[in-house]
From TrEMBL:
Nucleotide-binding keyword on record: yes
Pfam family, one: HATPase_c_3
Organism, scientific name: Rhodocytophaga aerolata
Keyword rRNA-binding appears in the UniProt entry: no
This protein's UniProt keywords: ATP-binding, Chaperone, Nucleotide-binding
Domain Histidine kinase/HSP90-like ATPase: 28-182
Family stated for the protein in its record: Belongs to the heat shock protein 90 family.
Protein name per the record: Molecular chaperone HtpG
Length: 609
């Protein structure tokens, strides 16, 4: 049937739709190419579907989508040899913007299965072309027998024109006449980058500049049973060419109650939380959507790398942003469970290998335990604690390891830890003299992790090894005998207070072992923890980072140097010894530097003469 030339007005349900499309609907103008290529893929997939159910009996031929750039003509053309359109279908799917051809197609054939291959919504997606084009042409021929080719053209107003044209092969050509303010898209390199970003894994070959730019069957679309480790590692290198090999990976493959595929890789990370975010790519039926996946993936797994693909994640009309939805929560929970199951499996199957990887894995696990109670319940069985001798224990194993020797008079088990084994070595050694075990908790999340453990573990507290004198760290109710009387203790305290004259110091005279330091300087555990959390960005803790340091100074009543201070009648010598023992305490905490350190060295040389 011959096509009657026709002019008319596009039927729209919103006034001034074109300015809205151009300025507000799509935040990034490069999206036009994603939309047009996705629509061309849709048209191709529709034809394949009709062929498979016997509603198209012609030759499919080589199905593909082609993107052509003509810099001289200032045009970009997106072509497919898919289903095509009749003039009536153009009126229906293009002129009535609020109607979606893809939606109607899926509804019509949903009972015949495999409707998941249809990507998008042709109506608004097509009109994204007007963000960059001053005029758009559609030249199309339907797959239907005896269909007449048709040409549609609009200059970005509500007016259009449909005419008869010549086109031998079925399919559709979308010709964009690029506007003056969008000339950047007439550069081959620019188009190549957009196609690489959004079309790298589309399910139909995409040809640009004589080359197919995409992998139509990416790894996540395949069954895990047909893949080898080398395949996963190669795919990882394709995604992240500059990264080290990952530790391991999880292949997601779910079709009920939602559709979800993907591969999540565990990269090698230690204390670089911020450097590794935005590394998971979200796809919808192999079309790249975004790498901002915070609602789909739990916060603690944002450090992972890889790909997630789901048509069941709801997007806004421009397919640029996620929308809140029950499926998103279900997918989030499923990913959390799969990660937990995988870690548990690795721990049970090869504990030694798990321990070797724990310096990297531990960041994920601790982050999850801090932020997700359900994950904590699963992870508590495979989360490892590492002591200063580099031995690993689960939470239960460690409690059994230390409870006989590190239980205080109230029945509370104390886990001692160091946040810096080098700087706190004197205190670690002091603990070891008592056969106490000391954990190494020096990661950026450990100040928060410690709080989580104290909240979750019954009758257990954690204390930094330099937060108090050794007998007070684990108070067993046994008092050491003192060689000093109460009057001598009072006199000694007054000497230190007068000599040092520092209002931020709180002095006490204690009966400590003779092999302990003459003066021990500590910052209370609470204050230490608050300052550590403030340093690591703990919410509401900034005030602690700005508060002045208030130290406890414990004077060892049983040390020979302290007795020498007490018995000395030379005030100058007494003051020198007070300063020397105090500086020794500072030195043990790595708190002595600059002019004070120089004075300490000179004073030491004088005292040894």
């Amino acid at each position: 049937m011959a096509i009657t030339e026709e002019k008319g007005t596009i039927s729209i349900h919103t006034e001034n739709i074109f300015p809205i499309i151009k300025k507000f609907l799509y935040s990034d103008h490069e999206i036009f190419l994603r939309e047009l290529v996705s629509n061309a893929v849709d048209a191709t997939q529709k034809l394949k579907r009709l062929s498979s159910i016997g509603e198209f009996n012609g030759e499919l031929g080589e199905l593909k989508v082609t993107v052509k750039l003509d810099e001289n003509a200032k045009t970009i053309t997106v072509s497919d040899n898919g289903i095509g359109m009749t003039a009536e279908e153009i009126k229906k799917y293009i002129n009535q913007i609020a109607f979606s051809g893809a939606t109607e197609f899926v509804q019509k054939y949903k009972d015949k299965g495999e409707d998941q291959q249809i990507i998008g919504h042709f109506g608004l997606g097509f009109y994204s072309a007007f963000m960059v084009a001053e005029k758009v042409e559609i030249i199309t021929k339907s797959f239907r027998e005896d269909a007449e080719p048709a040409r549609w053209v609009s200059a970005g107003t509500t007016e259009f024109e449909i005419t008869q044209t010549t086109k031998e092969e079925r399919g559709t050509d979308i010709v964009l006449h690029i506007a003056e303010d969008s000339k950047e898209f007439l550069e081959k390199f620019r188009l190549q980058n957009i196609l690489d970003k959004y079309g790298k894994f589309l399910p139909v070959p995409i040809e640009f500049d004589g080359n197919v730019i995409n992998n139509t069957a990416p790894l996540w679309t395949k069954s895990p049973s047909e893949l080898k480790d080398e395949d996963y590692l190669k795919f990882y290198k394709d995604l992240y060419p500059m990264s080290e090999d990952p530790l391991f990976w999880i292949h997601l493959n779910v079709d009920y109650p939602f559709n979800l595929t993907g591969i999540l890789y565990f990269p090698k990370v230690k204390n670089e939380l911020h450097l590794h975010k935005d590394k998971i790519q979200l796809y919808s039926r192999q079309v790249f959507i975004t790498d901002e996946v915070k609602d789909v993936v739990p916060e603690f797994l944002m450090l992972l790398h890889g790909v997630i693909d789901s048509p069941d994640i709801p997007l806004n009309v421009s397919r640029s942003f996620l929308q809140a939805d029950a499926n998103v929560k279900k997918i989030n929970a499923h990913i959390t469970k799969k990660v937990g199951d995988k870690l548990q499996e690795l721990f049970k199957n090869d504990r030694k290998s798990f321990e070797d990887k724990f310096d990297h894995i531990g960041l994920f696990i601790k982050y999850g335990m801090i932020t997700d109670d359900k994950f904590y319940d699963k992870a508590k069985d495979f989360c490892l604690l590492k002591n200063t001798e580099s031995k690993f224990y689960t939470l239960n194993e460690y409690r059994e390891h230390v409870q006989a020797n590190q239980t205080d008079k109230d029945g509370t088990v104390t886990f001692l830890y160091t946040s810096d084994p080098g700087k706190q070595d004197a205190y670690v050694q002091s603990a070891r003299k008592r056969s106490y075990d000391v954990l190494k908790l020096d990661g950026m999340l450990d100040s928060h992790f410690i709080n989580t453990l104290e909240r979750k573990l019954e009758k257990t507290n954690l204390k930094r090894v330099d937060s108090d004198t050794i007998d007070k760290l684990i108070d067993k109710g046994i008092a050491n005998e003192s060689v000093l009387s109460e009057d001598e203790k009072t006199k000694l305290k007054e000497v230190f207070e007068h000599t040092l004259n520092n209002k931020n110091l709180t002095f006490s005279v204690e009966s400590l072992p003779v092999d302990e330091l003459p003066v021990t300087i500590t910052l209370p555990e609470f204050m230490r923890r608050m300052r550590d959390m403030a340093a690591n960005g703990g919410g509401g803790m900034a005030m602690f980072g700005e508060m002045p340091m208030n130290y406890n100074v414990a004077i060892n009543a049983n040390h020979t140097l302290i007795n020498k201070i007490l018995k000395s009648e030379d005030e100058a010598e007494k003051a020198k010894l007070v300063r020397q023992t105090y500086d020794l305490g500072l030195l043990s905490q790595n708190m002595l530097s600059g002019a004070e350190l120089t004075s300490f060295i000179q004073r030491t040389l004088e005292l040894t003469k």
